[in-house]
Write a structure and sequence with these properties.
By secondary structure, this protein is of the alpha+beta class. The protein has a single domain (7-88), classed as Ubiquitin-like (UB roll), CATH 3.10.20.30. Helix content is 17%, strand content 25%. The longest helix has 11 residues, at 33-43.
């Protein structure tokens, strides 16, 4: 079943572009972030697992934003014309 809802843009972080054939911006459909991610998964198999864990939570090293607001749950609403940003959080180890 295809998600209902309007179309949004999804900006994909560079480390995940191997799933999108190098494409940085995709169009997806959905009324919630969960539906948008499911739509991406249908077209880019494997991308969801990199962003979402087995308990349907956003992985700690990932940040998902709807427009400029960070989404902490997959139930976050998405409207027509919104931009979803998929960002990989960076971590660094400080050298003593």
């Amino acid at each position: 079943m295809r998600p209902h809802g309007m179309t949004c843009q999804v900006r994909i972080a560079s480390p995940l572009r191997s799933y999108t054939a190098g494409v940085a911006v995709l169009t997806a459909r959905g009324r919630t972030l969960a539906e948008v991610v499911a739509d991406l998964e249908r077209r880019c198999p494997g991308i969801r697992f990199r962003m979402i864990d087995e308990q349907d939570r956003i992985r700690p090293h990932m940040r998902l934003f709807v427009n400029s607001g960070e989404a902490r749950e997959l139930s976050a609403p998405v409207q027509a014309g919104d931009t979803v940003h998929v960002v990989c959080a960076l971590s660094a180890r400080l050298q003593p």
